[in-house]
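Structure first, sequence second, as always.
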């Protein structure tokens, strides 16, 4: 990670490696390991992050975050890290690829006292 930070140019591939490694480190520090159920694994992750949320399963996962959220910032629907943290965790914990799904141009839809995001995937992870 330190070597990547000293680079003057960071390609998309190196950024992906760096973010995946940072996520693994964070998840290890949170005491999160592999999970059988993506829904239950995501519930545990969000609880450890201090986020009150409902997780619904199906063809894609739907996450409804209740306010107050520790990641609430002005215009947070534009920069919320939760969809990406969730996708990285599920990809690491299940060994299958997960990614946030856009709603219009954003990953998070905010309505009143709730935010919603969706994750799609569960497909086999690509071979390196």
């Amino acid at each position: 990670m330190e070597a990547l930070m000293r680079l003057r140019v960071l390609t998309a591939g190196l950024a992906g490696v760096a973010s995946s490694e940072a996520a693994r480190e964070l998840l290890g520090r949170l005491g999160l390991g592999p999970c059988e159920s993506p829904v239950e694994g995501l519930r545990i992750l969000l609880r450890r992050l201090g986020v009150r949320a409902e997780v619904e399963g199906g063809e894609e996962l739907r996450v409804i975050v209740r306010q107050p959220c520790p990641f609430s910032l002005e215009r947070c629907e534009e920069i919320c890290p939760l969809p990406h943290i969730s996708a990285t965790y599920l990809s690491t914990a299940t060994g299958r690829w997960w990614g946030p799904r856009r709603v219009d141009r954003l990953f998070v839809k905010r309505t009143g006292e709730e935010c919603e995001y969706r994750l799609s995937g569960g497909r086999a992870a690509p071979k390196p």
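Margin note: The chain has a mean pLDDT of 82.
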